[in-house]
Specification:
The chain is of the alpha+beta class. Helices cover about 40% and strands about 20% of the residues. It contains four helices and four strands; from the N terminus they run H-E-H-E-H-E-E-H. The strands form two sheets. A two-stranded parallel sheet has the order 1-2. A two-stranded antiparallel ribbon has the order 3-4.
């Protein structure tokens, strides 16, 4: 998450939007955010977060799960598991 936070800080002035969706309780997510600050918003979705993931193509419900959505609202890229920052940077460049 520190890598995603750095990337968000770098790219948000260029229009990048990022949301972290947590499946824990709001209290646990707040505790996590206090210990591991991130520069993008975190949302406490509870177990409904797995439903959100499924809506974005994560049929297995595996975490972490990352989705890039283009400016038209279409899924451009998705990856299950730990994301390599270089891969995300390449995809963001390809997205424009």
């Amino acid at each position: 998450m520190p890598e995603l936070s750095a990337l968000y800080s770098e790219r948000s002035p260029l229009g990048l939007k990022m949301i972290g969706i947590g499946i824990d309780s709001p209290a646990r997510i707040a505790d996590f955010a206090a210990r591991t600050p991130v520069s993008y918003p975190l949302v406490a979705a509870g177990m409904g977060g797995t439903d959100i993931g499924r809506e974005f193509g994560n049929a297995a419900g595996v975490l972490p799960y990352t989705v890039l959505i283009d400016w038209r609202g279409r899924i451009f890229f998705r990856i299950v598991g730990r994301l390599k920052l270089d891969t995300l940077r390449q995809q963001l460049t390809a997205l424009g």
